[in-house]
Amino acid sequence: MLVLRMDMVRLCDKITETQPNLRGATSTILEQLGTVMQSLRDVIRDLRPAVLDAGLRSAVEWHCREFTRRFGIACNLTWNAGDVVLPERHITALFRTLQEALSNVHRHARANMICVIVNTDHNNIVMTVVDDGIGIEFDNNANENSYGLTGMRERIIALGGKLSICSAPNQGMSLTISLPI
Description:
Its EC number is 2.7.13.3. The chain is α+β, with helices and mostly antiparallel strands. It has helices at residues 2-18, 23-47, 56-71, 88-109, 147-157; strands spanning 74-80, 113-121, 124-131, 162-167, 173-180. The protein folds into two domains: 2-47; 54-180, Histidine kinase-like ATPase, C-terminal domain (Heat Shock Protein 90), CATH 3.30.565.10. Strands 1-2-3-5-4 form a five-stranded mixed beta sheet, with helices on one face. Helix 3 (56-71) runs parallel beside helix 4 (88-109) and helix 4 (88-109) runs antiparallel to helix 5 (147-157).
């Protein structure tokens, strides 16, 4: 992308030398290319957040603290998984699923408190996110527009894991993810 931008700058300079009336159009093209480059950098960064470089536990601790700071909803972490070693794909999937789960709590649950519990069970790592919010009622049409839940489920199933949700109106919600170690 950088080489493309450099070539475009040279081309725009040549064009505006011979056709100065195109200066505005070439500037617009360069601005759009800059926007595309920034978007691409953002996508690449978001594929695997840098916070994961410190390890899953540190990333989860950080995210829970940040969530509490930003939204004023207590997010308590209980980590009983020791220094479990996971494939990178599993680490990223767990972290992304946690982000989506907490985002859903913030947007929909009207919760005051969230508990995130991470432990190991036989050959699995298990992460449970429990909130004290309004809960949700499941019916046949409830999940048609719940892309967040669908995305989480698909991400976990693709890695051989399971995602389960327990909820009832006015009784909060519990989301449990289990991934093989």
